[in-house]
Amino acid sequence: MTRSVCFRSTLLAFAAISFLAVPAAAALVSPSKANGTFIAGSGIPADNFTSVTANTGDTVALKGRLRDTGQPLSQSGNVYYVPTGLAADNVNPAWSFDYQFTPEDGAADPNFFSLTDYWLTLEVDFDPTPGSASFKTVAGPVSGLAPNFYANPGSGAWSNDVTPWVVSDSANLGFASWFLALPIGPTGYDPEVVGEYEIRLTVSELTFFGIIPVRGADIAATNIFVQTVPEPATAAMAGVAVIGLLAARRRRA
Predict the structure, then answer these.
(1) DSSP state of 159
(2) How many structural domains does the chain have?
(3) 62 within some domain
């Protein structure tokens, strides 16, 4: 795919602030990583991502996981099972999600002042009700200024030397910054609630309306569902309680 890289100095602030589905078959992959770990953070395993690759070679990938271990409790296709409650720090939710966009081989490598050829959209559902969704959206042009933009440092540094750069990061639904995501307002997220959350990641072509960057045709998209379940100890206690009730009923009978 050949697309021109367009530089607009007046858009740098917009690009930095703006960026925090196409149906396709999903697959589990291991995205490009540095020093044996997923580059979104130290120690995060680079496996079991749900990924979609367009015929251009552009790839989007998502993964739901425990914040402390880097892996979900279990997984079925693009459904990731995680516990409710807080992580070991007693501050952040027990689970996070990782996302990564990997461009086609040979994609233009932006410098400090330029945008790439891409527009990225991250949509996160904050409604725990299964089958229902309330999405917050963070979207914008991919820029070399983005804090989650990583250029390939050279041969042997990543698992795939031909990948020019990636956009890669981790997030959780407890971040206060979600208040500013569209639609602006509180999320109502409660880490103790059992439920299901959908997360979507879409990469599109970057086009311009005059000098304003806008989302063009979608290239590739993927989605995952994160299902929160009670912590094992809580679930075990609930199971014991149910067994006790059944036994009491049998005695009464």
Answers:
(1) S
(2) 1
(3) yes
Identify the residue whose tokens are 């995060």.
44
Q: What is the pTM of this model?
A: 0.81
User: Going by C-beta distance under 8 Å and a sequence separation of 6 or more, which residues neighbour residue 167?
Assistant: 19, 100, 101, 120, 142, 146, 148, 149, 150
Report yes or no on 224 lying in a domain. Answer: yes
CA pair distance 51, 74, nearest whole angstrom:
18
**pLDDT tens readout for residues 168-225:** 888 999 999 999 999 999 999 999 999 999 999 999 999 999 999 999 999 999 999 9
CB under 8 A, 24+ apart: contacts of 132-135: 133/198, 135/198, 135/200
b/e 186-219 (16+ beta carbons within 10 angstroms → b): ebebebeeebbbbbbbbbbbbbeeeeebebeeeb
Cβ contacts of 149 within 8 Å, gap of 6 or more: 142, 143, 165, 166, 167
Show the domain range for 118.
9-252
- Cβ(94)–Cβ(69) below 8 Å: no
Q: Is 154 exposed, middle or buried (0-12, 13-18, 19+ CB in 10 A)?
A: exposed
Decide if 141 contacts 19 (C-beta within 8 A): yes
- Rounded to whole angstroms, the Cα distance separating 101 from 200 reads 12
Tokens 């693009």, residue located: 78
CATH number, domain of 46, equals: 2.60.40.2550
